[in-house]
Amino acid sequence: MNLHHLLEKRRAAGKPVRVALIGAGKFGSMFLSQVPHTPGLEVPVIVDLDPERARDACRTVGWDDAQIAATTFTKDGAAATGGNVEVIVEATGNPSVGIRHARAAIAAGKHIVMVNVEADVLAGPLLADEARKAGVVYSLAYGDQPALTAEMVDWARATGFKVVAAGKGTKYLPIYHDVTPAGVWGHYGLTAAEAQSAGMNPQMFNSFLDGTKSAIEMAAIANATGLDVPSTGLLFPPCGVDDLPHVMRPRDKGGVLEKSGVVEVVSSLERDGRPVFRDLRWGVYVVLEAPNDYAADCFRQYGLKTDSSGRYAAMYKPYHLIGLELNISVLSAALRNEPTGQPQGFRGDVAAVAKKDLRAGEMLDGEGGYTVWGKLMPAAESLKTGALPIGLAHRVKLINDVAHGDVVRWADVEIDAKDDAVAFRRAMEAKFSR
Q: Could you tell me which of 37, 207, 57 has the C-alpha nearest to residue 121?
């Protein structure tokens, strides 16, 4: 609770926290919009595939000409690790690139804030292990739902509560798993022309819809908190905030969970498409179990929504502000040497699943595409199955047919074993499967 005070001390001492941003898309732009209003925080380097677009993004979010002129805009990722930069923010969204940037940051002795949750789920446990050994911080990105949920789990445990379930809300129906970029906009209430004029990427938005992004974020939460992953994948039960304690409890207590202590996503839609009352589409939650009768009485006395037994209660945050909140991670790393969520083990994985009958010779197109979606699996089960991670299911060719709904396996695709991301993922599997 003293980040601002610590930053003020650094500013007064003439030692601002200096950050390099890699990837000036929406998340990065939201972060940049807060920089001029955070004295003591500077972003002297911005790396983007299109430096001019990054420069335009700075203008759009309110940077003045002097601040833009003082900033280096470049395509060269190596520029992020140079000079007196303390923290590198990786916001590209590309898992292979993200792993490369994170390892370069760690090797250079820089803290790394991984907005790129795709890279975190592909190999975050090993990246975090490398960072700890190097004495730098590897952190999930505050403002994004995994870090916010991990914070709530930590709060609950630190105050003595048992965590029954934790996760987020989203818009979900079972039919969404097979949606492709060609049909995505109808589910958002937009025409293709409207989406195009707004610069919206259909494959990216489809990854939010088809369940892939939810799976990735729940895997990140499981790996950071030690919570378990549902054995058969996410349930996406329809549930509003008032019903969280009723629905998100174990089945033997009247809820939908196979057991206590799992990650799960709640849907903002009933299965017939009607909106859920007081939905949590944009937020995060944690369901708690009272450890004793006295605590349960306190739930009632202080107005918490509980289940009928009074022993299960929920806390939630209705919104997340993604890049607008990223300063919390940056400053926590630089000023406290602490992450805002970090993988502690390999508990959850996201496997590529066929959206249709796939034939040998077809090329997979990755997250949010036409060929596969990402399903959350317990890591041990994923390794036993030989499941192909969704983060590596892009621009790889099938060598076997895969039926609609089946998990794609490593053995089903041509894989370049010398590829850096593949090699690093394999190393992580070997380390964390022992």
A: 207
Whole-structure pTM value = 0.96
pLDDT in tens, 346-378: 999 999 999 999 999 999 999 999 999 999 999
Cα distance between residue 258 and residue 230, in whole Å? 7
CB 285 within 8 A of CB 321: no
CA 57, distance to chain mean position in Å, is 23
Give the span between the Cα atoms of 53 and 243, in whole angstroms.
44
Per-residue model confidence as pLDDT tens digits over 31-75: 999 999 999 999 999 999 999 999 999 999 999 999 999 999 999
3-state secondary structure of 278: coil
Q: Are 214 and 390 in contact (CB under 8 A)?
A: no
* Rounded-to-integer distance, Cα 287 and Cα 313, Å: 6
* CB-based contacts of 197, cutoff 8 Å, min separation 6: none
Strand partners, 394: 365
How would you class 264 by CB atoms within 10 Å of its CB: exposed for 0-12, middle for 13-18, buried for 19 or more? buried
Query: Which pLDDT belongs to residue 95?
Result: 95
CB 15 within 8 A of CB 79: no
d(CA 136, CA 60): 33
Q: Which residues, other chains included, contact 203 with Cβ-Cβ below 8 Å and sequence gap of 6+? A: 181, 365, 367, 368, 369
Closest to 96 in 3D by CA, of 418, 389, 427, 422: 422
Domains of the chain: 3-143+323-336 (3.40.50.720), 146-172+211-320 (no CATH), 348-432 (3.90.1210.10)
- d(Cα 80, Cα 57) in Å, to the nearest integer? 18
- Distance of alpha carbon 165 from alpha carbon 145, whole angstroms: 15
- Please state, in angstroms and rounded to a whole number, the distance separating the CA atoms of residues 429 and 423: 10
Residue 249, Cβ density class (10 Å: 0-12 exposed, 13-18 middle, ≥19 buried): buried
- pLDDT recorded at residue 185: 93
Structure tokens at 131: 């960072």
- The per-residue pLDDT for range 70-127, each reduced to its tens digit, is 999 999 999 999 889 999 999 998 999 999 999 999 999 999 999 999 999 999 999 9
- Mean pLDDT score of the chain: 96
Q: What is the largest CA-CA distance in the chain?
A: 63
Beta strands 72-74 and 41-47 are parallel
